[in-house]
Design brief:
With 422 residues, this protein is an alpha/beta fold. The chain contains 12 helices and 21 strands. The structure holds pyridoxal-5'-phosphate. Residues 60, 62-63, 81, 104, 201, 204, 239-241, 276-280 line the site of pyridoxal-5'-phosphate (PLP).
Length: 422
Amino acid sequence: MNPMLSAPGRVEAVALADVAREFGTPCYVYSRAALEAAYAGYRDALTQHGLSGRSLICYAVKANSNLAILNVFARLGAGFDIVSGGELARVLAAGGEAKKIVFSGVAKSRDEMRAALQAGIHCFNVESLSELHLLNEVAGELGQRAPVSLRVNPDVDAKTHPYISTGLKSNKFGVAFTDALDVYRQAAKLPNLRVTGIDCHIGSQLLDPAPAAEATDKLIGLVDALAAEGIVLQHIDVGGGMGITYQANDPAPAAADYLAPILSRLAKRTEQVVMEPGRSLVGNAGLLLTEVRVLKPGEVKNFAIVDAAMNDLARPALYDAWHDIVKVPQVGAGGTAIPQKTYEIVGPVCESGDFLGHDRDLALAEGDLLAVLSAGAYGMAMASNYNTRPRAAEVMIDGDSMHLVREREKVADLFAAEKRLP
Ligand SMILES: *Cc1c(COP(=O)(O)O)cnc(C)c1O
């Protein structure tokens, strides 16, 4: 059973049927306990390697930026990895500490740099020479020295989906490994910068730690070469990317096992260790609850048309990603047994790519509730209003309490900023 479910149809002490009754569907449901357990996996791995005193777990906000989720991590002492000024504002609104924020992203604007400097973030993860010069200029205007790390592209093959592989020479991310020494030398000469670290992020949904361990070795080699020239770095940021279980019986590694080869390398050193996990902190702490609207037997396939769609959860349409889909048992259900059939689980959006799952064996009746599992990461964060569909409500379960952490959008809100011609 998915780690988020305490029993079929239950999250912590709450029945999903009650969540649907109270808040409607489609609805994202999160578990505070599951978020905390995922965070503890990282913290414990750091402790095991003697790194708890010199490390920072920066949750990658883009995986799920709901304020309640950010707040749960902020209370645990987490830092944050942001990729925009918008995410900076969210983290601060959620109670995150500016000095624990690292700012990633390939093309930060002047305004974003200024806001982050004024907030006093931990570090800018800089990805190009051009960005380095712009940051130097903006920091100078504010009379500050900006803390910088260079995102180095270690040119390792993360062996994941091409859309989420980021550490190859052919990707748009980072400074090429072969240019890194030279770019550091230039950075060290810019008066309004403080060179403090090095970072990388080679991809997402990584199941084998070997590529990340190889990248860590490459970073360490660079850090030592820089030190020999008098450029001494204070932190090494190994990025995020640890994969999660999406399909039962297809287990992703435990955090301790995945992180061991990376952290054992860093434990021998003195720099602060920074990590940027996104998916692995939230993915299996969230599910998408949806109701079966229409059962439609087809000539070749049976369709179960549900009230959630590709605009709510884009991953299946975008990456052909698999999410386990389970039926939520109805309280007091009984009566005639429903035959199990093989269904295409699809949404109401006008696109043939609008599916949540292919070929699922389920015994369904109209009105049944389904839980699309492992949807906590890159689910709501990628949701859109395509087909003028209001985005789903979000609810966080904490023990026996349910908290509405984002109201369902209203149709009127969707075009409130639009204008007709005079
Ligand atoms: C997306 C991203 C992450 C998080 O990746 P996950 O696979 O969700 O852990 C970390 N760092 C950077 C720079 C990213 O772009």
